[in-house]
């Protein structure tokens, strides 16, 4: 079979460009007399990965000129106390965006916490109101990782190339699978969603011009399954041990075996991951703008 040159999609560079754009817009926003947009980040417990993500979110929020407000709560906090904090942040006129870092400890009802966030401050775009707005094509806040996936696809292929393309989303979470499928539909792709009960995953992958993998299973998708010339967006971030006993991050797609078959592929790390935080910053500014427009309306 003819091998093609596989292009690596540089998510780190795309994220840096998006954040620079957000920083410029924040400068304009404050120069025209508005308060600095503020993002409240709520972390519950001591999960090491969550701590790193939250630290990066806070650092990058400040770096683009916005205000970061951190709330670190103990792992054994009760649900009522967490809901009370969310209610306080909803009512605080100085807070534009609220983000509750996931996953939450097992004893907390995650759906209830997300449902308690004011949809207009829901910069993760996870509230049912924002999910409904996305499904109905209305303006709202869109989940960060899916938005990052769509931006990378548009930049790589162009909007016109998405029209009518067969896009396969693997995974159906509310954080990635479902919203990314909605965004692809909005970009006029023909969308299929595969999941744990899909009967013939390799066959579904073979039919796809675009594959968005978000299952959290290391190297589940073999390069040999791909349609030659496909574009692959790998959302998986799986920490595995190498035969030499070292820890390594890998995606849901076997990056090496996709070389020579895929036309474009995001690496892990350095692909979709950095876009998640860049989109969060863009969403926080958007929340400040939306709230101001709604207050004036
Ligand atoms: N409330 C939320 N919780 C979680 C989200 C989210 O969007 N909102 N997403 C993930 C975690 N996450 C941000 O919170 C996140 C994950 C990964 C990255 C990233 O940049 N990854 C790097 C690699 C990092 C590493 O070395 O470990 C990469 O892929 O290059 C950013 C943000 C779950 N929780
Ligand atoms: Mg739970």
Give a verbal description of the structure.
This protein has helices at residues 11-31, 48-63, 79-91, 110-116, 128-135, 144-157, 159-162, 177-186, 201-206, 255-258, 272-296; strands at residues 7-8, 38-44, 67-73, 97-100, 166-170, 190-194, 210-213, 231-234, 238-241, 247-250, 264-265. It has 2 domains: 33-118, Leucine Dehydrogenase, chain A, domain 1 (Rossmann fold, 3-Layer(aba) Sandwich); 143-274, Rossmann fold. The protein has 297 residues and is an alpha/beta fold. The strands form 3 sheets. The protein has a 6-stranded parallel beta sheet. Strands 3-2-4 form a 3-stranded parallel beta sheet, with helices on both faces. It has a two-stranded antiparallel sheet with strand order 9-10. β9 (238-241) and β10 form a beta hairpin. It has 11 helices and 11 strands. The protein starts with 6 loop residues before the first strand and ends with a helix. Residues 106, 108-110 line the site of magnesium ion. Homodimer.
TL;DR?
43% of the residues lie in helices and 16% in strands. It has 297 residues and is an alpha/beta fold.
